[in-house]
Amino acid sequence: MNSIHPSLLFFEKGLPEHRINKVIQTLQGGFSDKEVEGQHKHQLAFREVNELLGGGDPHIGLMFTTKAKYSHTRVPGYISVPCAGFNAQALKEYVEENVHECRLKAKDYC
């Protein structure tokens, strides 16, 4: 898989369609000619994120939101991802640093 499994992706209620489309385009590797050089790194980062999110119990979802910052404390079992400025490397770094704590909180909630 070159991206994040669709079952791990969620969108905030009321999120404008153009933002959803932009996120999906980024996840699928929609690049301009200038960005093609970084495509391989981009795909590797999303593969790693996918493995981190789905590699434990419970699986952790990504909730794309209008919020300005990443968060793993808003909803148990989900990492909130800001749509504005969202990119593969920033997502990977946040998930690596916080997926364990997010998973623990999700287990406590159940």
Secondary structure layout plus pairing:
Layout lengths: L8 E3 L5 H11 L11 H16 L6 E5 L12 E5 L5 H22 L1
Parallel strand pairs: 1-2, 2-3
Helix pairs in contact: 2-3
Task: Tally the beta strands.
Answer: 3
Given helix and strand content, the structural type is alpha/beta
The fraction of residues assigned to DSSP E strands is: 5-15%
Q: Main sheet: which strands, in order across? A: 1-2-3
Shape: globular
What number is the mean pLDDT?
Answer: 89
Tally of alpha and pi helices: 3
Distance between the termini: 29 Å
From the alpha-carbon coordinates, what is the Rg to the nearest angstrom? 14 Å
What does this structure look like?
45% of the residues lie in helices and 12% in strands. It contains 3 helices and 3 strands. It is globular, with a radius of gyration of 14 Å. The model has no long low-confidence stretch (mean pLDDT 89).
